[in-house]
């Protein structure tokens, strides 16, 4: 008997669309179920977490995960990617410079350990890391067995390679990655591009509109008014319009 979204600890947002908040860093992973297909959005912070997400997504979808979209290349969103062998992986153009090069991978490992991930788990995940096969420049429409999902390269902002996922429907759902955070102040690390972050949020709002549900990388689901306030706060914080 298939378990429900709630029984597995996932929040159902619309028909065939949901998300879960992972322990540790309160990172969000999303799922969109199509006919014979399933898109997972972000892969968790370790191989074990990725394997758990894959198993739960398969339980909810009734079939394997066929697509994986990475919203940005930070450890808590990407280190589980190797658990999705055989899955078509998507990321913003340039994400392979972070996930593919030796120096960049060492920085990723150090960031994970510095933020509290066990060193062995971090090394294991980084060693197995696979860069996305598909690089999104502009917009890319995925056909998920009768339902279409839009991948949009809306960054840079929180990182140099920010990807949003728009799921049409009633309501529309926008997975924002860490361009939007609800459970704390948006984090701007060394790879953030503050001067363009407000513009990235403008593009998110253009994608989803006033009535969409906006799913932040960390925290509770928010509305367009919240995204607009955060956009204005970031513009003031970084001195941009």
Automatic annotation (TrEMBL):
Gene3D superfamilies: Ribonuclease Z/Hydroxyacylglutathione hydrolase-like
One Pfam family cited in the UniProt record for this chain: Lactamase_B
Domain (Metallo-beta-lactamase): residue spans on this chain: 26-218
Segments traversing the membrane: none
InterPro entries found in the cross-reference section: Metallo-B-lactamas, NDM-1-like, RibonucZ/Hydroxyglut_hydro
CDD domains: metallo-hydrolase-like_MBL-fold
Protein name as annotated: MBL fold metallo-hydrolase
Organism, as annotated: Streptomyces longisporus
